[in-house]
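Sharing in case it's useful to others searching the archive later.

Someone asked me privately for the predicted structure of Tetratricopeptide repeat protein, so I'm posting the question and my answer publicly. Question first, with the sequence:
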Amino acid sequence: MGKKVRTQYRQNLISTLIKSNPYIRPENVLREIEPKQEVAAVLEPVKELVHERVQQLVDEVVDEPVQIPSPESIPAQIQLSLEALVDELVDILVQDQEQSFSNQNNSIKTENSNKSNKSKVNGSYSNQTREKNVNNQQSQVSSKVSISQNEPLNAAIELHNEGIMGNKQAVNSAYNSLKDLAKQDKNNLEIQAYLGSATTLLGRDANSVTDKMKYALEGLKLLDAVVESAPNLVIARLLRGNVSFRLPEMYFQRTSTAIEDFSFLVQAYEKDSSILTESEYNEVLKNVIEACKRSNQLEKASMFQNKLKTVNGEGKVKGNSTSSKQSSSKSSTKAKKNSKGKGLTDEAINIYERALNGSSLEVQEAIEFFENFVLTNSAPEVEMAYLDVQSMLGRDSINTYDMFGSAIKSLKAMDSLVNEYPSNRDLRLVRANHSLRLPENFFRRAATAVSDIEYLLKEYENDPTYLTEETYHQLLFDLGCAYERLEMIAEANETWNRLLKTKTSLSEVMQQKVYDKREVYAFQEINLSKYSTSNKDQFYNMAKELHYLGAKGSKKAAKQSLEAWENALKAYPNCEVANTYYAASAALMGKHASDPQEMFGETIKALKILKTSIKTDNPELLYLRGSIYHALPEGFFHSSDKAIKDLNAVKSAYESNREKPPISHEQYVKLLFDLGQLYKKTSFLDKAEKTFITLLKVAPESKYAQRLVSQGVNKE
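And my answer, the predicted C-alpha cells:
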C-alpha cells in the first residue's frame, strides 16, 4: 500500500472528524496533508465508528460529557489521542483495501462491528476452531460435546455470525434455531454457548433498556454455566470473552471475565496454534490489551502488546498509544496509594451505618469524619465507605444536578476501586447495596448488583464463616430484587424460594418480606366486568385491594387498579375517594414505568389530580396522598412540605380517636417514622426528635425503632 493511498485515507478520516466533532482542531491531527487539497467522503461505517470512538476519548478525559464542544475547553491529551485514533482507522481502511474489491464494504462493516461497543464478538469462527481441543481435559469434554458436521447447527451458527454483523432478523432466527437445538440435545455445550451469545445479541437489538439488560444477563448466565462445566472449551471462552468485552462496564462489570477468557485463549494458542486462526488470535490480543487498560492492569497490557508485536512482526503496536500513557500515569498515581491500613474501626462502622440509615445530618457527620479518617487509614474498605457516604449527599438533595452528580461520581470511583481489588468482598458488598439504592430507570445498576451478589454468594459457599446468617439471607433477598428490577421474574422467584429453603432459620421480618414478594407475583388478573360500580362499597373494596397490591410491587395489579378507578370516576365523577385513588393509581404507573419520560409523565398527571382531589379531612385519603408526596424525590418535586402537612393531619386524627382509629397501628408507626424523617430533612430537628421519641414509646420492638436506636435516638 503506497503512501499516496494512505494519505488519501487520512484526508477522508480527518474531514469526517472535523465535520462531525467541532472540538477537533485540524492542526493537531492533520499530517501528510496539503492544506488546500480537496478530500473525499469517508465510508459510512467508518463515519459511525469515528464519531463513537471520538466521544469515548472525550468521556475518558473529561469528568462530565461535553454538551457544546469548544476547542479551547478540551484537554490537550484528547488531541494527542486523536492522532493515535486516526492511525488506527487508517489501518482499518488500508487492510480493507488490500483485500478483494468485491468484499470491501463487508469487511469494513465486520471490522466496525468488531471494534464498536455495539458488537465486539468475532464475526466468524472456523470449524477448525470449534473442533480443536486444548489439552486432555478438553478432549474429555469434547467427547461429550457434539462436534460433528451438524447441518442445523452449522446453519444456526451462520445466522449467529450474520447477527453479529448487525442483521437483527438473523439474530432472531439464530436464537430460535439454537433454542430448539438445545432442547433436542441438552448436553451439547457448544449449542449452549452459541445460544448464550445469541441471547445477548437479542439484548443488543432490544428497544427497551430493561430488555437489553435482561437478555444480556440471561446470555451471560448460559455462557458462565458452559465455562463452569467445560473450562477448556475454546468456543465457549471465545464467545464469552467477546460478549463480556463489548458489554458496558458501568452496568455489567465483566471486563475481568473478558481478561480471564482472552488470557486463557492466548495461553492455549501458544500450546496449540491450530485452535484459532491467526486473525482470531490477533483480535483476541487486541481485545485483551484494551480490556487490561480499562481495568488499569498495565503490566498485563504491556505483556500482551509484546505478543502482538511479535505476531505482527512490525515492531509497532497498533492502537491508542496515548491512552496507554494516560493509563500508565493513572496507574502510577494509584501505585503510590498505601493499600494497607487498619480498615474500618468500630467507630467508623458506627458512623457509616448511621449515615446509611439516617438523614442528611448523619450523612454530613459521616463525610466530615471520613475526610480526616482516610488521611490516616487508606485501606480500600475505608475509601469505599467514604465514597458511599459521599454518594448519599444526592439522596436528600433538592438540586437535581447534585442528586445525579454525587451518585455518578461515586459509582465510577467504586467501579475503579473494585477493579483494583476484584477479590475484596467488602468492596463488592458496598457496591451491591449502593447499586440497589439507585433508581434503576436512571442508573441501570441492577446488573452490577447481580454480578457482585452472585460473586459474594459463591464466596460464601467456599467460606461460610465470612458472612453472618443475617447478611447471607439479605443478599439472597436482594439478588431476587435485582432480578426483579430487570424483569427476570422467574429468576427472582427462584432466588426467593432458595432463601425460604435455607437450612438456617429466617427472621420474622425477612420471612414477611419474602411472603410479600410471593403474594405480589401470585396475583392473577381479575375479571373487572364481574364487579359493578352500582354496588359502590364492594367495587371500592376490590379496587383498593388492587391498589394495595400495586403499591407492593405488582404491575398487573397497578394496571388493573387504574382501570378500576377510571370506571369508578365515570360512575361517581365528584367522589373524592375515586379521584384520590385514581390519582394514586396513576402515580403507581409512574413508579412501574420502564423509562424516565413515562415515569415523570404519569407522576405529574397524578400530582395535578391529587392537588385538588381531597375536599374534606378524610384521614385515609390524606395518609394516601402524604405517603405519595413523601416517596417522591425532593430534587424533582419539592413535595416534603406537602407530605408533612398531610401526615401531621393524619397523626392528629389517630391520636384524638384511638378507640376507632382512622388508620391501623402499623400505619401509624410508619407514619411517625416518615414524619420524623421529613422533619429532619426540612431542618425541624426538635419536631423530628419528639416524633421519634413517640415512636420508640408506642412501638419499641418495631423495625423502625431499631433503626432509630442504631442512629443514637433514645426515649429520654
